[in-house]
Amino acid sequence: MNQQKSLFRRVQLWMYGRKQNALSICKKIGYLDDKRGKRVARHKKPNKKINSKKRLMDFEENHNHQEKEQTNCMSSIIFLIFLYLLQGVPLGLVMGSLPYLLQPYLSFTSLGFFSLASYPYSLKLFWSPIVDTVYNEKWGRRKSWVIPVQGSIGLCLLWISYNIQQWFQEVAESLKQITVVFFILVFLCATQDIAVDGWALSLLSEENLIYASTAQSIGLNTGYFLSFTVFLAFNSSEFSNKYFRSVKKDFGLISLSGYMRFWGWVFIISTMFVSFFQDEPRKKYSSVSIKNAYLIIFNIIKLRNVRTFMFVHLIAKIGSSASEATLNLKLLEKGLKKENLSIAILINFPFELIFGYYAAKWSSTSRKLLPWIYAYIGRLIAAFIGILIVYKFPHDGKINTEYFYIIIFQNMISSFMNTIQFISINAFHTRIADPIIGGTYMTLLNTVSNLGGTWPRYFVFESIDFFTKSYCSKNIANKCITDEQVSFCKELNGHCIKKVDGYYITNLLSIFIGFLLFFLFIKPSVEKLQRLPLRAWKISVIDSVFF
């Protein structure tokens, strides 16, 4: 019993000593004085007039500050949407309209060669450090690139507009020249995208950075929509004669050369506006050499999580790439009119903007990649519906209302899932990207994401012709695959007969690989990556490089 009392006493003395030590430390740092002052102040009678007046002034000041921040944020978002819209216009031509305009004259293999013109947008990582590090301090870090590049795009569009008609008269002979010219145009658009991505990080506050991906989605989709859907519709003679003309003509309301000339001047005028009226936030940027900028990219890629994420990007669109690249082209080949296809996409566009808004809301949760996972399955389902649509296409080429509604439905599903994935993945990029590196981190992730959707296209077009088995009705030895073989068959007054259509084999194989990759690697990897803390995405060499 005495031993227990002695032990209890020792514990009391030890706790008392701990308390005294804590009190002495608090006195040294002034904590108790602050607490005592608060207790004294609590017993004082407050001056109600002074306090109420002060509270009113503080409320008005905070309210005015919030209104100013909201106004600045909204104007910045609108400005970013405008810049991204300008990017979307040339991209909509290269990746949207031109393949449809070239389709009657070229085989899928030749269309695959033209698809190489879109590759610079997926390879911009290789020159993004130059855009991020080389700039004129007087103009600003981003304006130093946006102004000359945007002006160059305008001049390039004007030059192409005066030559495009001549190239289209001999498409097969001019294919290489057309591909090179639009390759340069996409290269300029990709360079502008690097600068605008970095500008978005400095224009928007930290809590509003999630809207950078929304601005990008709305701007790019709107520009793409104008150059793809709207242009194709008004370029079609059937659409123009049906809805806008009393006397039929064999050409559309808008020509390709006229459309490109119009946007060439828009680019030049907008460049002058950005140069004189849009200010860039003046910040003192750390000096970094191009060599160190590439070193940063190398160190980012060295992170195991980043390498896993990059590999997910590279394989994530294999399952849906075949359908998205060839479905509409195949429908046109089957006999669907361009104006009907344009109307289907036109109906889909306003829903796409609404989808983008709700996708941004959905992606604002802590698990930003959860919508991306669900949308992945949705894109594969939409791809399979696309196969059924092509298979059930009427042999006489006359589509009824129900079939047209199914085309619209498939376009809406595919577009909805695409928008969800785009905004979700860009919101995640914005979250994990280190602002100290500027646009380099974002450009790395966006480049790999774009490359994942671009690199399969060439192989998709090649695979369709590879798996296709056909022959000429006038010459069985003629396989009717290349442009020359098809032209030779027509010269014999024959037509190509397909025994096996490689479209179905390529698309089914693509979807099967997509499901296999999803359950074996993509889903478990993405779920793991989104649970990682932000420090897992930082590199340790930033201080040594910048400071």
TrEMBL record:
This is Acetyl-coenzyme A transporter 1. SUPFAM superfamilies: MFS general substrate transporter (SSF103473). GO terms for biological process: acetyl-CoA transmembrane transport. The keyword Zinc-finger does not apply. InterPro entries: AcetylCoA_trans_1-like, AmpG_permease/AT-1, MFS_trans_sf. Keywords: Membrane, Transmembrane, Transmembrane helix. It comes from Pneumocystis carinii (strain B80). The chain crosses the membrane at residues 77-98, 104-123, 144-162, 174-196, 208-234, 254-277, 340-360, 372-391, 403-425, 502-522.
